[in-house]
Amino acid sequence: MFLNIDRKDSKPLYQQLIDETIKLIDQGALEVGESIPSTRSLANKLGVNRSTVIRAYEELQALGYLSSKQGSYHRVQRRKKEVEYTADRSSVISWEKACSADTKAIHQIFLRYSPERLKNDLSREDAINISELDLDPRLYPMTEFRRCINQVLHDSGASSLQYGDHKGHIPLRRQIAKRLRLHGISVSEKEILITSGAQQAMDLVIRMMGRNGKRVAIESPTYAAILPLLKFNRVKTREIPMNAEGMDLDFLEKVLAEEPVSFVYTIPNFQNPTGITTSHRHRERLLNICLKHRVPIVEDGFEEDMKYFGKVPLPIKSIDEKNIVIYLGTFSKALFPGLRIGWVTADLECISRLTAIKRFSDLGSSKLVQIVMTEFLKRGYYDRQLKRMHRAFRKRMQMALQTMDVCFPPTIQWTRPAGGYTIWVKLLRQWDEERLQTHLVKFGVIVSPGSYYFPDRKRSAYFRLSIAKQNEEEIKEGISRLGKALYAMDKGNSHVA
Amino acid sequence: MFLNIDRKDSKPLYQQLIDETIKLIDQGALEVGESIPSTRSLANKLGVNRSTVIRAYEELQALGYLSSKQGSYHRVQRRKKEVEYTADRSSVISWEKACSADTKAIHQIFLRYSPERLKNDLSREDAINISELDLDPRLYPMTEFRRCINQVLHDSGASSLQYGDHKGHIPLRRQIAKRLRLHGISVSEKEILITSGAQQAMDLVIRMMGRNGKRVAIESPTYAAILPLLKFNRVKTREIPMNAEGMDLDFLEKVLAEEPVSFVYTIPNFQNPTGITTSHRHRERLLNICLKHRVPIVEDGFEEDMKYFGKVPLPIKSIDEKNIVIYLGTFSKALFPGLRIGWVTADLECISRLTAIKRFSDLGSSKLVQIVMTEFLKRGYYDRQLKRMHRAFRKRMQMALQTMDVCFPPTIQWTRPAGGYTIWVKLLRQWDEERLQTHLVKFGVIVSPGSYYFPDRKRSAYFRLSIAKQNEEEIKEGISRLGKALYAMDKGNSHVA
Asked: Is the same domain home to A239 and A268?
């Protein structure tokens, strides 16, 4: 075997050995069945450590290039043959017909509603994207997270890779319960179910209570990604309009008096998309209305931890003496979304049912990830991270609002959030949203179309900004561009409409 | 401050500092508002490195015990107050009534069907549990897995913690596609959707095609945890009896001729629970029958990689020219279950719809875990692990079957699997399963009751053994005990019936 080994190469020696051997086999210079030198003789010949050769042979065997007998590596082996991939074989099944009507509905929304599509359609490389609710990865506490993983790998062995408790890792549930008690919610780990993000918690709640022709009351506008789930589960929506104080409670009272509703879905803090936070009084009244009609409230606390301006009332769940509130939380908005850890807390009887659905729908969330998150919380890293986040987003939100004050035409209105990431902007009149997007991209800025947040995706006079992903400079520049674009629309560019 | 620091303690110094300070605060020896020494002076006093004190103060601040101003740590602080937990607050909502009938059904099954309950009910500490399908954690490749995590943490930064592709991490899908091509399945990464285990893949398939009064044909007996999902989605089941060759295809033909069916669910390798593997001919005929009726096949390949005796035909999906097979796979059975990585591959149109449902039900699986798994596959560790597994389970299965031959009464019948983990045992007559379990536990062995695997959970004359979790010695001992227990039943102990 003639192997080219280069000691100056940054590639490790064993890796060079592997790559060179594969090259020889692929070129046919080494043939199937041919013997290869023993580890000792090759090591001597090349003047490398024998352990280097052993490691290389081990990997070559694992990759299927070498056969072994009784622990020694002998011959070049024929690798198992792959079949070819034939693209675009069509199916004799019409999947459109094989699927239920609800699947068609969710599939259509999926195809339309995708940020990837938005980006492709509106390609301009230097456009500033202030549409997304994904947290700025530059703020991720990577060092602390790495420390936790290393600790977990060191401490816990195989048990971290077995099936876990269906409700979720108990120490994690304890940590979350403790945090919730700091938010005034009287809860223990027993009433907590860990989910794959708050999104799965929502899916479970809808599957539990809101299927097949039932009615659910939602704020209008509301979180966009709950809408396809409701449709998919054949739930009818009753839209309760948002006003400056939150959901219109007089309207809600009328709706609940008229017809039974499975639950009321609300986002009391920094509502998505409007950014509106309700007062303690509003929360009390909402709770009392629902109590009177014995209707559960689903409280989405996805940004509970983003109270960076202070002065936000405690969750509705904290005054829920009669246990009618189902509370959803997540680490995706203040830490990082890729872990997929959320939770739901409610009356034990309710949690038990949600756990049953969760258990059979995925046998529980990844235990390893939950253990790492537990370590992160235990060490106080999450609290420290929140302080960092609060400092950063106080400034970002101030920058966004100041820039809007300066750069937006006087005909435009917008909300002034008490925290969180989103600002809701109202135009003077309705626009065709595709044209609006195209117009804004010409000015180098991307926002999120208002229609996403209404069940019927009707034309709207709104769009949503998000400050989650961009830093102060980018926010300032993005909103200035937006201001210019809005002025250009305002000045009689009514062909955009 | 009087802090007890012990240099001989294995606990790091900074951690000792933290624990001691908290103790003083909790005891009231340090009061809220009290000043603490500067890092420099405390370091001098204790004779430790100043950085040790800084690290301890930082963590104490993160934990909420110290206030800081302009980066220096000043005073003991009142920690935010938790509300108390009041257990057993009852809810004014009747969750039983608030939930749909299907939720009641899945909840009841959940409460009954839980290994925890089984263990508690049948507590005998030294009982050998040959009921579970969880892989023996003593076989986990922990060293290799740690190596992969370290590599991933070193290589990939924040991107591994962002939202990922809804279909799953592309390099992982490529690796899986490559493996499937080695199993004769012509597929690219485009036709693969990553799921939280094969269980979620099954849930998605049922949600897509099998809801609300539709019919699905299943093998009888079949995988226990698909049954509650079918019930939950109001799917009617048509049971196709298993015979020694697999699903009774004459029976299937009759069923399909009589009424439309949404899909046929089958486990061709080492069927759960029977352990039966179908022949190539059986697979061809099943495919042709379904083709004729244009009925999709859901092929559960959950133990595709556990062909440790060799000689198992390729998957049905490998001869699926017309693309009617939806194939499910997982790493939970040959590697470790705690990662929660499975996949589904099918016609692109079908995958697109499944992706839509997955996207809105949990926004995609954890990216970090997927990246680590990709590294594990790339390095050839998975193939190496399979070889190890095959060696171990060849011996375990041989031991199980040999011991049964020797120790079981001649009236008992059982299957002789060509791989996988489960053996299906038939008794001479039906038994009351609770009494049977109690009887077996007296002899120190636990098996899985046969009724779990039938939709109506009827009394059955069967039980399932699994060799997944116990080593050869334990299998030998467990099955010997089982033999004694069966002889004791046989010898006129008919009160058990």
From this structure: yes
